[in-house]
Structure formats: C-alpha cells, structure tokens
From TrEMBL:
Alphabetized Gene3D superfamilies for the sequence: Vaccinia Virus protein VP39 (3.40.50.150)
Signal sequence range: none
Organism whose genome encodes this protein: Hymenobacter frigidus
InterPro entries: Methyltransf_25, SAM-dependent_MTases_sf
Record has Methyltransferase as a keyword: yes
Alphabetized UniProt keyword annotations: Methyltransferase, Transferase
Superkingdom, taxonomy of origin: Bacteria
Keyword Ligase listed: no
Residue ranges of every copy of the Methyltransferase domain listed in the record: 41-132
Name of the protein in question: Methyltransferase domain-containing protein
Length: 211
C-alpha cells in the first residue's frame, strides 16, 4: 500500500482511535500560533481537518490540501465553512492551489511522508508573503530513532506507512536554503513529562524578504 492508499484506508478510523501524536500536535499548533496573526492560510496535509476548523475560526481564508480523497472527505463532512476551500493535491508537485499570497503555511504530521524537505520549503517560500510564517509540527525525530512510525490497524493487522527521518538539522538547513529564519523550536512530551523522549517537534519559520 502506498502512502496515499494507506491514508484512504486509515481515514475511517483516523479520528476515533487512540493517537497520542495526533492529539499532542493539536495542542502544539494551538500554543505555538496563539500569538501569531494570520489571514490567508494554506494547510498542507489537512487530513480529516483536525486543525482546519481552528485555523478557519481566525483566518479570512484557509486552503486545506491533501492527496487522500478519503481523508479530505472526512474533513469536508465535518467542516462546512465558506472560508475553507478543500483541495485534493500532492504537495510534492507544483502548488497550483497556492493562488493567493499566504501569510501562514501550516504542515502537521505530513513531512515524515515527504522525502525531499527542500522542495516543500522552496514552494512554501514562493507561496508566502515576505514576513509570512511556516509552521511545522512533526513526530519528533527522537521518536523516529526509536522506531516509532505512523501506523494503523487495517482490521487484519497493523500497517506501517513509509516514513522518512528528518533530523532537526535537516529542517534548519532546508529552511535556511529557502530564505527562512527559524524563530521558534519547541518540543512536546507525553503527559508533559520532560524526563521522557519528546513526541512532537514544532517549528516556526519566518520567510525573509530575499529568497
Ligand atoms: C498523519 S496525517 C495528518 C493529518 C492532519 N494534518 C493531522 O494533523 O491530523 C498526514 C496527512 O498527510 C497527507 N499527505 C501525505 N503525503 C502527502 C502529499 N504528498 N501530498 C498531500 N497530502 C499528503 C495524508 O493523506 C494525510 O492526510
């Protein structure tokens, strides 16, 4: 099963099964963007819309993008807002969905499925206005080093999705190469227990004026 098919299969249970990573990232994005103003948002890998409704409550407009028709279908069934446009697209291809300049691009729990971080940062830089913000929330690479991967129960067994490890330095290098400055790096822990391995890595990048 490729990544797209896997998310089509996972969509039915994605919202309902226990998933600490999903839930902790929801807390992370809300905290990290609490003081960030935004109007025009592109949400990459919106999935079933876990963060879409929250973004749309503040933004004038959200373009919510995912390549899984089933994940998008779940999001669309939940979110009926005139200021949200759902778009089925593969973010590793040209971002034809980025039709208006954004001041915020978000990407939650999606980059672990993308091999070429640099291509995403390059397109984010083009999609964002100068001074715009790129938020990234990912399963922490320390968890990946321990073997944790996106996985779900198919009904006949547990299926592990294809994942790529991106080290913290990889995010920094990809951001810098596309003219971004990292302005926040935060980690979230299960039960807020800082003696454990962090589960979520969240980063905020500012797009500079020169790319
Ligand atoms: C773990 S889910 C995260 C969904 C949501 N952002 C959340 O935090 O709950 C990853 C999502 O990324 C999407 N995705 C993965 N690779 C993608 C790609 N190349 N283009 C568009 N969407 C992609 C999947 O279909 C899936 O919905």
């Amino acid at each position: 099963m490729n990544i797209q098919s896997a998310y089509n299969a996972w969509a039915e249970t994605y919202d309902t099964v226990l998933n600490k990573t999903r839930d902790l990232e929801a807390a992370a994005i809300r905290q990290l963007l609490a003081d960030v103003p935004f109007v025009e948002v592109i949400e990459l890998g919106c999935g079933t819309g876990k963060n879409t409704e929250w973004l749309a409550a503040t933004a004038a407009h959200v373009t919510a993008v995912d390549f899984s028709a089933e994940m998008l279908g779940k999001a669309q069934a939940k979110i009926a807002r005139a200021n949200v446009r759902f778009q089925q697209a593969d973010i590793t291809r040209a971002w034809d969905f980025a039709s208006r300049p954004a001041d915020l691009v978000t990407c939650s729990l999606t980059l672990e499925h993308i091999q070429d971080l640099g291509a995403v940062f390059r397109q984010a830089a083009l999609a964002l206005q100068p001074g715009g913000v790129f938020y990234i929330g990912e399963l922490h690479p320390f968890k990946q080093y321990q073997g944790t991967k996106a996985r779900f129960d198919t009904g006949t067994g547990v299926f592990e999705l294809e994942c790529f490890v991106h080290h913290v330095s990889d995010f920094m290098a990809a951001g810098q190469a596309s003219g971004f400055q990292c302005v926040a790096l935060r980690e979230w822990f299960d039960e807020n227990d800082r003696d454990t391995v962090p589960r979520i890595l969240a980063l905020l990048f500012h797009r500079g004026t020169v790319i």
